[in-house]
Amino acid sequence: MQMFSLNFLMYTIGGVWMPIEWSSNIAKLLYNVFTTVVLVLLYFLMITQFMDIILLVDNIDDFATNTLMFLTIVAVTCKATIVVVRRKAIINLVQVLLTAPYKPRNEDEMTIQTKFDKFIKSCSIKYSLLATSSVTGVTVRSVLNAMQGQLPYRVWLPYNFNVSPMFWITSVQQIITVIFVTIINVGTETLVFGLFLQTCAQFEIFESRLQKLVTNKTNKLMKNKIRYLEHSSPSSNEEKTIISKYIHHHIKIYKYAKTVNVIFNQVLFVQFVGSILVLCTSVYYLSAHKTLSETATLIVYTICMFVQIYVYCWSGNEVILKSMSIGDAIYHMNWPSLSVNERKELLMIMLRSTLPMKFTSSFLITLSLQSYSSILKLSYSAFNVLQK
């Protein structure tokens, strides 16, 4: 796909996205096997960590530290499963942006589309570099732990992993799984981020088209120097046809955004539930441990979690602002030049824009900076309470 090529490349490397241009049956079969192996690794690590928490953890500190990694694995496993299961829906969602009325029609609209595409790609690259540095540090720590005779991550296993071959096989399996976890996690977050911002791109293209419509009609009025409504305007049926195309595009943008929310609804839900649980767990641990050596890793982990939430909330907030700005943009156009019927049609668009497009994490939270601010306040309040 031309759009989101970098994001889908991450998915391909992560084992959850077979390139749609592949035609070889052998290549498809091998990649399906690869996908199955990746999913088995994710589910195996998730289940063994859960069993460790249930059967082996016997103090609150171990519970807190083990739960953090477990929640991350649960979230990524959910993301990987949804991407594999809803592959066709994601393909259709991206391809619809390449068809009318979403597809840019002239140079100005191409400029708008290119601006957003470059911004999405730039943010994806920066986020990938940040994740790469993070997973590199984690991998180095895991290798050092393995060299000291400890598994990189605590798990319950149905076999004796203290024997040398099984110990190294398990250690390598955990390290490889965490690398896949990072790739899939980054791929999902940057893809959802990009799909959100494509909604903003569509609103900006829609605004540009509407502005040109009003400008063209104003120019006709100035050239003819006669009454616009009686002579220069198209017939009533033509007016309805022209303006209905813009209303149709406006409705389609909301439909696109709703489809994005439906496809990734469970991803957002798991992400935010996991983030809230991580927040509670990490706040408790930080309040009980004072030394930097005990809390350094957890502090970095908590900051990364806040960055993840911010990516979703910021992009969701941009969609809210852009959808509401349509009404103001119409108001500042030269709408008196239009016919009465066209003014009524524009009024319908303005009324629709008073209800902003919101992405939600199921019933839990609306993705906006206000919600992000509430999460920060909650974490600070909880930390102060536990400190006392």
Textual characterization of the structure:
By secondary structure, the protein is mainly α. Helices cover 80% and strands 1% of the residues. It has one domain (5-387). It is built from 12 helices and 2 strands. Strands 1-2 form a two-stranded antiparallel sheet. It is elongated and about 90 Å long. The termini are far apart.
Quick gist of this model?
It is built from 12 helices and 2 strands; from the N terminus they run αααααααααααββα. The chain is mostly helical and 388 residues long.
- Summarize the main sheet: 2 strands, antiparallel
Order of helices and strands: HHHHHHHHHHHEEH
What global shape is seen?
A: elongated
* Quantity of strands, as a count: 2
In the predicted model, the low-confidence regions spanning at least 5 consecutive residues are 227-235
| Beta-strand content bin | under 5%
Q: What value does the average pLDDT take?
A: 86
Oligomer: single chain
Measured between the Cα atoms of the first and last residue, the distance is 54 Å
Main structural class = mainly alpha
Q: What would you report as the Rg, rounded to the nearest angstrom?
A: 26 Å
When the domains are counted, the total is: 1
Strand order in space, largest sheet: 1-2
Q: Given the structure, what is the number of helices?
A: 12
> Share of helix among residues?
over 70%
GO cellular component, one term: plasma membrane
Keywords: Cell membrane, Membrane, Olfaction, Receptor, Sensory transduction, Transducer, Transmembrane, Transmembrane helix
Pfam families: 7tm_6
GO molecular function: odorant binding; olfactory receptor activity
